[in-house]
Amino acid sequence: MEEILYENIIDVCAILMLLLSVLSITTTRMGKLVQHFALHSLVLAVIAFFVAFYTKNWHIYITCALTLVLKVVVIPKFLKYTMNKINMEREIEPIVGIPGSLLICAAMIFIAYLVAEPLMGSLDTLGGTCFAVSLSIVLIGMFMMTSRRKALTESVGLLLVENGLFLGTLTISYGMPLIVEFGVFFDVIIAVVILGIFAYRINRTFNSVDTSFLRRLKD
Amino acid sequence: MNFPVEFILLIPVISGILCFLSPRERIISYLSIALAILGTAYTFYVCGPIFLDGTVVEYGFWYVDAMSSFFMMITSTVALMVALYSRGYLGHEREERVLKTGSEKYYYLYLNLFVAVMLAVYSVSSVGMVWIVIEVTTLISTFLVGFYHDERSTEAAWKYLIICSIGITLALIGISLVYASAYQAVPEESMALDWKVLMASAPYLDPALLKTAMVFIVIGFGTKAGFAPMHTWLPDAHSQAPTPVSALLSATLLNCALYSILRFYAISEITIPEFTSTLLIIFGFLSLFIAAMFILNARDIKRMLAYSSIEHIGLISIAFGIGSELSIYAGLFMVMAHSLTKPILFFCAGNIMQAYGTKNMDIVRGMGTKMPFTAALLSIGALAVVGMPPFAVFMGDFFLFLALADAGMWYLLVIAVILIIIIFSGFARHIYPMLTGETTMDVHDPPGISRHAPFLILVVGIILLGVFVPHEMSAALTNIVNTVFGGVI
Q1: Helix (H) or strand (E) holding B258
Q2: Which residues of chain A neighbour B173 with C-beta distances below 8 Å?
Q3: pLDDT digits (tens, 9 = 90+) for A70-125
């Protein structure tokens, strides 16, 4: 009985994460986007907490705490800081319009379920649904990286991808070995910081953070 | 010396830090060269016996077997050549004021850390750690790609970072699926991602999970290795990085991803035979095809060389994909041959760029009379890289063709030969006019040992490997092939 309760809570949270990713695709303001990302990470932390409680794996509590501190607080702060520093306009300017983006998101969720379906038998019930959801989030994040013009939106896309990935590892295999999880975490943080540095550099060399200027190198 | 692996990794790290802290700019390059010699010598001292005897060193986080030591020796050899060449190359840039004062120490810091991380890829025991370390190679080398801070290099660095991060994320999904299928099959969860444990528990892994996992892993690490169609970052990064770094990227970074793919391939062949092979062969031919088309129409010499790397990665991937003992042997041999040949060409490209001030091959003419040394080396390098005897790549290609014929894949053999001929004609078309013709520009070979020694060492190396392979080496390579097929570790 208790198990089913936990599974349901985790399922609901996972769906919430998926909805938040779709919501961030529709966002046109940078500040809102960062807020959505923070919320996204908060839900991930809640999932981590319940998974930890459910499996009694103490090291998942650490993942949960790290998510709370780094992804809910530190990274959004850093993104806002970079945003102010390079004085970017607050508009996001998607290459694909909002309705089109939503349709593509729907297609991606469909694809994710298609990929995950044959694996449902091999994973337990929790893993099965959540794998599909996490794959959808990863795909939506990637779509955000490719369809938005601003350098910083691309880093938020990467962060969404990473959140989706963590949802996957948490629910499929109840986390990875601790050392690996630590490593992945800090890799992501460093990646975001470096992306920030380069966004700053792009802003300085091109006088804009619009990555559609990056079309010089071709054959 | 109870910590051999730590020392191997520590030497480049120390070298990087010393170079960074060095008070005088003039001694930085000497420091880097001295420590690179020490590092390479020590790597050979530790890895040589492991490679030749097939023993294993494992403790703590580390696991070094014959395969890892093979890749580690290649990496540190190339790193030494790059350290040598960097001295002359950066010296010239300093005189021409392309380089800002004070940026040289950053170059050497990133370069040495980059080498250390690449060596770490081969020596860590857990798949998860391998993933982390490969991501770190991207993070560090981004700074090297964007080293010149101008528009083009910033663009290249940005693309490199974004594409490789996405790719490597896909690989992590694959790894977590592998973990999901392994953590019940092995006694201790925290060990479930170790290469050795995975290899031993491979028969008990869930086939459905592993299939999906391998798709993610091949695409993910394939992005980093430069498989087409995920290769788009590669020509940009290789052409915009400082030339010695391009050599390092091409000859060693791509190997890191190939190594991980080969390890996973070995695991998956036990559980789901012939699944990964097919993937590798498809990606291999796609890469070969794309490379051939772009080499034919290349303008920029470094982009052409980058596409030639994609070609070789494609050939190696095909070799791994065929999956016979001969073909894996061919693949390993080609890894080595490519890593030793490509730096020669990139170093030539560096000499040309600094003399003519351009990378455009249509402008460069008359090298034969004005720059005889570079011209000679460029022709040797070009002949070697397209697979002419008596150079090492020829042997690799030859083994690969034998393996294809052996496996009865005649169509594929014909396609591969045609594509290689196209690549050959592409190289001939671009390189020959550069050697001949007339130029009014006042160009000459750059002086100094640093601009001669690395070429000569590498040329002697590839000729030796091309004409005869020592018995010990072929025995050691065969031994690695056996471990791929689940032999005694």
Answers
A1: helix B254-271
A2: 135, 138, 165, 168
A3: 899 999 999 888 888 876 666 677 788 889 999 999 999 999 999 888 887 777 76
Query: Strand B62-64 relative to strand B57-59: parallel, antiparallel, unpaired?
Result: antiparallel
Q: Which residues contact B221 (CB under 8 A, 6 or more apart)?
A: B134, B167, B168, B171, B257, B260, B261, B264
Residues of A in contact with B179 (CB under 8 A): 169, 172-173, 176
CA B31 from centroid of its chain's CA atoms: 25
Each residue of B48-99: pLDDT tens digit?
A: 999 999 889 988 889 999 999 999 999 999 999 999 999 999 999 988 888 8
Residue A114 touches chain B, beta carbons under 8 Å: no
Residue B55 token pair: 């023993």
- Which chain B positions have a beta carbon within 8 Å of A154's beta carbon? 162
A contacts of B185 (beta carbons < 8 Å):
none
Tell me whether residues A201 and B150 touch, CB distance under 8 A: no
Our measurement of the distance from residue A34's CA atom to the centroid of its chain's CA atoms, rounded to an integer in Å, reads 11
pLDDT tens profile B232-253: 999 999 999 999 999 999 999 9
Give this prediction's pTM: 0.95
Helix (H, G, I), strand (E, B) or coil at B445: coil
Q: Cα dihedral sign for B84, B85, B89, B92?
A: positive
Q: Which of B134, B169, B308 to mutate to test the interface with A (most CBs of A within 10 A)?
A: B169
Q: B300: Cβ–Cβ under 8 A, 6 or more apart, which residues? A: B239, B359, B360, B361
Asked if the Cβ–Cβ distance from B131 to A180 is below 8 Å, we say yes
Record: contact A119-B209, CB cut-off 8 A: yes
Q: What angle do CA B456, B123, B329 make, to 5 degrees?
A: 60
C-alpha distances in Å from residue A99, one per residue of A160, B260, B426: 20, 40, 46
